[in-house]
User: What shape does this take?
Amino acid sequence: KQVRELLTNYGPVSELWFDMGSLTPDQSKGLYHLVHSLQPECKVSGRLGNGYHDFSVMADNQLPEVPYLYPWQTAASIYPETWGYRSWQKHIPLKDKIEEKVRDLVKVVARGGNYLLNIGPKGDGSIVPYERDVLRGVGNWLSMYGDAVYSTRHTPFHHTMSWGECTLKSKTLYLFINPQYIGKTIDLPCEGIRRITVYATKGGRIPFEQKEGHTSFVVPHSSESPWIVLEAEFNNLSLNKDVNSALPLSILTGVPLYAYTCGDYYTGRSIRVGHQWVSDKMPMEVAYLQDQIGKDLHCVINGDTLQLSLDNKNPMKMKTKWRDLNFGLPLVRYPVGGTMGNIPEKLFSDTLNLNGWKGVTSQSKNLSYGPFSACLVMQDIESKSKVDLPVSISFNNGVYIEVNGQLMYSNFQRGKDLKTKVILIPLKRGKNRIVAKFYNRFADRLIWNFEPLRSYLCYRKKLPDTIKSKKLNLVEVVQKSTAFPKKDIDIINVRFM
Assistant: This one.
């Protein structure tokens, strides 16, 4: 009734920002369709849950590490520890707080998102002077650099840069460079740049060099803070292609394409919605595990669109290259909070502090932690070669797995039944670190299993011989639907051979 009242009595409403706990899929679906039946142009936020939304919303104060293809938003507070007024709130120096928020704003925009910033007014509705001055400070920065922020697109590059951030508008790249890089040479993985200038002065050309798919230049001296902003203009931008010189093609290589989805308020996570490879070898067939049988694989190879129905023909028993693998002692940390899909980047650091982690000899646990609980499992593996490692996993509601800091697998299911699946984790030659987050949203106990296997069953299907090979072959796996994706494309168990 309240939703109907809001959308029928007060004129056009551009957005309804649902912020609630956990609805059933039918409840989320009903509210979503009610909104659009009354006001088709009204946008619905991701926290309605169960994938029914027009834009997704990350966890509070969470910033992504990758660009997302579908509309999304970060909801942040001026102080991460509170969303309301606190008379005892401590304030860092004003300049530092302004620069903190400017850095966060640029990071969100460079990954294609919208930045929603909260303040906490006093009981009489007045704004705290410190918070007012922070907003004015961000506004002053935007009055100078707004063209590099507003109406821009996310970075065209497929990975983050150590030196800073990048946005795109028309024929211009806007480069936001950390002042720590003054006097240092930075690299752009592209060619086609015709001019690089200092944004603030609208002049002062910067010398640069282009060769072999890269553009490099020395960051000029500047007093700008928190970003040195440069304009890189181009006619035809050519991104450097990471060419796979060997088959098979797995999600260990190539370019992953991501979105963010919300199961409910507590279970937002990144999901893979596509993957692209460039290879100088033409794949001839697709290999896959049993969980893919009965599915349709939607892919585009050298411009030809294919729908491959994966069947149970041509099974092959594969043995893991066990002798190539040196396993470290599995480590576990529990219970841990946070969102289901949030694995801290610091866990992949070589200098990780292991306080709070426990070594385990058993690769599964049944723990007395109820709903809203989670545990982290870390497995270090040294591999003598590129290896596909089959692992049997079990989880209550959610599992989120990264290898060497890259998302490999994400899954969330409602209910209390235990889920079990075999996944094929691709490992690189050398050191690998697998971190898995097992999440319990509804069950009475937290259960996890992570068991490497010595063999697995694989199936193969030939690709149509009508596809023509090229010097460089573009292989893409894509979502079938153009609607907002609700789940991971789930190709961890697919290989192009």
